[in-house]
Amino acid sequence: MAGLPSATPRYPVRLVASRTGLSPHVLRAWERRYGVVNPTRSEGGQRLYSDLDIERLLRLRRLAERGHSIGRIGTLGVSELVELEKATPDLSPTPAPAQGDGARAASESAAHVVASALLAIRRLDGGELQALLERSAMTLGVPVLLDRVLTPLLERVGHGWSEGRVSVAQEHLASAVVRRVLGWVVRLYQPSGAAPRIVVATPSHYAHELGGLMVAASAAAEGWSVTYLGPDLPAAELVAATEQTGARVVAISAVHQPPEGDLLGSVRDARARLPREVTLVVGGAAALERRGEIEASGGRVMESLAEFRALLPRLTVPDELVGERQ
Known about the structure:
This protein is of the alpha/beta class. The protein has helices spanning 13-20, 24-34, 51-65, 70-73, 78-87, 102-122, 126-140, 142-162, 168-189, 210-221, 235-245, 263-273, 285-289, 291-296, 305-311, 319-324; strands at residues 11-12, 40-41, 47-49, 197-201, 225-228, 249-253, 279-283, 300-302.
């Protein structure tokens, strides 16, 4: 009878992500929060995994997809995971994708999560909705959660509310749960050591904060230390917080344009007060409408969270953080 897979560390994180279907974001979260595997470090600081690690991660992923909590099964041995997998039926409506179809699999899984989330919202089942979204963050990764689950989910809820198909109570429940989940993501990914800092807020009179929370979650998952200051923050307070924390990036979210809101004035005020080396990022539908004026005033307008995530590594990430994220 064949023994367990080799425990010799040899595989870098990108190869492990390819073989297991788990993104580097998910791998890092499972390791930090649940200790599911304990990769060693090469002399250059690169995380290295063994065949045994890959075996565990594959089984954990399949069991998570079948509804098991990683927090409950993350410490089980491979033999225990094998038995649990045998005892847990695979109720997936579609066959598992072939290796290399990770993007398609993530898209299909995200669509299923959105459909399930809408059902939970209609039932006003906040507990199920929160568990579903948190599980998605751990199995699909934060970028997929934000881009392919929460963004379309919130759009569908918003359209349903405007058309009378979603009640006020259902819309409020969805917003409250999404707010809690995004706060949980920010806390989960906050780095314990040295990391670049970012301050996130919405300007004065801008009360919609979910866009800002999604920015905060994106930055945290990319290894940044996030100071989230919430909605309706005057520019002077934003600048003071930036100076106090030593943040190198300030992110302003402006999803909707309130009648009394002055986004361009807030951007100009903040840019005039901030040190030149601090990058001022502005996002949201209201920002896109005034992109030219904002950029002329010294702000950098982001069209999407994906563009924002792509920008962060170029903003002078410390060497120690680069090593941590490999």
